[in-house]
Write a structure and sequence with these properties.
heterodimer, A: mainly alpha, Cytochrome Bc1 Complex, Chain C, 70% helix, 0% strand, globular, B: Rieske Iron-sulfur Protein, 2 domains, 3-stranded antiparallel beta sheet, 21% helix
Chain lengths: 218, 176
């Protein structure tokens, strides 16, 4: 058996050590399925990134063509329905998984010293996931999308003092229309995902560096 | 079988067996990951490339009733042609000359002269199509009988359904 190869690339990138710090971390006793929710969220997010990017090839974020382009993706483009379904189900899964991940962290008190910053970043990530979910829901531009956004932005409008302002900023005017669709689209594909990548990168780096917190004793 | 029960230190390769348990599991995980990646990648590639081989069926537009086209008297009609382009359907204002040759034998001509795309007209007295730009002349079958046009008139694809003439806007051939 040959020795584990120390290749040309590894000599320069230190990839083996890098991978090793991911895979050969010390893990405390009692860690189980609950501690996999973060990784599962990451997998859902990666699926969403790829399927979402490919959906964009055939999507038109304008009121007169958004619905038709979605129908085109679903019914005409090869594997279009499959890719749209993966995007749809991954987004639902990500919301559920990120929720379970947060609850696990809360109930096992994993947010305590020295992991407060990881927890705060996680809170921001949770908000970004909800924002991504909310903005993505409008994009099919069908009745359900339209009225769900109507209700969602209406709820924002109920906030005291700033509510109506926030609602108008979200909608991009007085009524849901072309402006709403383009700004939701831009938030969904160009603003929120890079923020998630950045914050999740820091979040995961912190987890790798500090290790998983030991589960509390009963 | 010793290594089956042995606790290996991280990164350490247990000696003595061609493929250790740890190595085997690493291959297994790598293999499964590869299969998952391929499963996701295949639809993505197909999705990206499929517009290249997807042909859109033409949209046939009803343009006239058969009884509206008199025998031996070419009739000019205008219609709104719907054109499918991906998810986008645009509408073009178009025209066509319809010839009813022997009561039931129809020909639909593109209304542009084959010389420089000028619109031509039917000269009833001379019984020929006449182009005003450079004096191109065609007979009822679309053949060039005078002037500079290089080829007979272009014909448009059409079908007749329940007494209606439907045009797709596609050119199917020239002359007769």
């Amino acid at each position: 058996m040959a020795k584990p190869e120390t290749g040309w690339l590894d000599e320069r990138l230190g990839s083996k050590q890098l991978l090793g710090s991911f895979l050969y971390r010390k893990v405390p006793k009692g860690v189980g399925w609950w501690q996999t929710m973060g990784s599962a969220t990451l997998v859902a997010f990666i699926l969403l990134l790829f399927t979402g990017a490919f959906l964009m090839f055939n999507y038109s974020p304008s009121p007169d063509h958004a619905y038709d382009s979605i129908q085109y993706i679903t019914n005409v483009v090869q594997f279009g329905g499959l890719i749209r379904s993966i995007h749809f189900w991954s987004s639902s899964a990500m919301v559920v998984l990120v929720g379970l991940h947060g609850l696990r962290t809360f109930f096992m008190a994993a947010y305590k010293y020295p992991r407060e910053v990881t927890w705060l970043i996680g809170t921001l990530l949770f908000l970004l996931v909800m924002g991504s979910s909310f903005t993505g829901y409008l994009l099919p531009w069908d009745q359900k999308a339209y009225w769900a956004t109507n209700v969602g932005t209406g709820i924002a409008g109920q906030a005291p003092l700033l509510g109506p302002w926030i609602q108008e900023i979200l909608i991009g005017g007085a009524t849901i229309g072309a402006q709403t669709l383009t700004r939701f689209f831009t938030l969904h594909v160009a603003i929120i995902p890079p923020l998630i990548i950045l914050l999740a990168g820091i979040h995961i780096f912190m987890v790798v560096r500090q290790g998983i917190s030991a589960p509390p004793k009963k | 079988m010793m290594s089956f029960y042995r606790k290996d230190e991280p990164g350490e390769e247990p000696a003595g067996e061609p493929v250790s348990r740890k190595r085997f599991l690493a291959y297994l995980v790598g293999g499964i990951s590869g299969v998952i990646a391929a499963t996701v990648a295949t639809p993505l590639v197909g999705y990206f490339l499929s517009p290249l081989w997807r042909k859109h069926p033409p949209i046939f537009t009803p343009v006239a009733r058969v009884e509206e086209i008199p025998v031996g008297e070419p009739t000019f009609i205008t219609y709104e042609q719907r054109v499918r382009d991906g998810w986008y359907i645009s509408t073009l204002s178009k025209g066509a000359w319809i010839v009813n040759k022997n009561n039931g034998e129809f020909i639909v001509y593109d209304p542009r002269c084959t010389h420089l795309n000028c619109p031509y007209y039917w000269d009833r007295d001379k019984g020929m199509f006449q182009c005003p730009c450079h004096d191109g002349k065609f007979d009822m079958d679309g053949n060039v009988i005078g002037g500079p046009p290089p080829r007979p008139l272009d014909r448009l694809e059409f079908t007749i359904e329940k007494g209606s003439i439907l045009v797709s806007g596609q050119t199917v051939g020239e002359g007769a």
